[in-house]
Amino acid sequence: MLDYIKGEIVELTPTAAVLEIANGLGYYINIALGTYNELSGKNNAKLFVYEAIREDAHVLYGFLTKDERELFLLLLSVSGVGANTARVILSAFSAGELKTIIESGDSKTLKGIKGIGAKTAERIIVDLKDKMMKLQIENSEVELFVAQKNSAQKAEAVAALVMLGFAQAASSKAVDK
Hints:
Radius of gyration: 20 Å
Helix content: 40-55%
Distance between the termini: 50 Å
Number of strands: 5
């Protein structure tokens, strides 16, 4: 099995990259949108890969980190989620954001992704929630996402308490606790 491919970026699109390694051999690697954004403007790249071997094709999927690849493999383990759907999910959210969404059981956010219905979103959460606890992903990314999400929830909760007649300052203190 291939672990990673390192080489010169010959072609780069939002969905794929071609990396040329020694002796003029180029690999066509499917990538997520976040990977594309990171590779834009660079001449060389190292992508951790997953090779899907099917009867009619050998397809490579590339990731910037091993964590992202591990998350992709976990998504593939969910019934009804194929490689392209997993790639779309990773294009919509970073690894840290997706980990937080699954751990918090936020199926509504997952349903916002094209091709993900209510049943698939729930299945992803149920199947992967325990596995996410074991997965180590950069904390700074997760903490930023949680802070943004909690900030919006806090503002909503304070607004609701103010509408019920409580003072702004007291409502803010209560929500913080």
